[in-house]
Amino acid sequence: MQRTRWFWLICLGTGIIPFHTALAEEPAPSLAPYYEWQVTNYAIDEPLGGLTGDAERGKAIAGNQSRGNCLACHLLPIPEEEFFGNLGPPLIGIGARQSVGMIRLHVVDQSRFNPETVMPGYYRPPQQLHRVAKGLKGRTWLTAQEIEDVVAYLASLK
Fold it and tell me: Is 146 exposed, middle or buried (0-12, 13-18, 19+ CB in 10 A)?
């Protein structure tokens, strides 16, 4: 059985356009542990849960429409992905422009930099999330390991 996931594509000048993609039925993910994090000087300096990220896994997550989907809004150096958005800034060279801690905070909760952002908070505290589907309550968008993988990938973009 296939499910359909709906996305909203925000096009500058044309408004919001709904589109969907069929996804294979997959079991609900188990509840991963949530690790508290602390912001200091616009950065989360300590890796979530003391985990170590893997840049190759992070690249896969960033390009995956069902997980990070960073390409929906950002240009990334992923040549096999020909479509990308331009709503957010290009992330090519982000590792040379920002510290690892700042990159981590951008991915965890972009609203700490810009309260009006449309970027999801990929690791906001679950109790702060509203209007969450019943099967997803108590979960973050990405796990702590996935966050650290994406951070490792973005930090490698020098």
Answer: buried
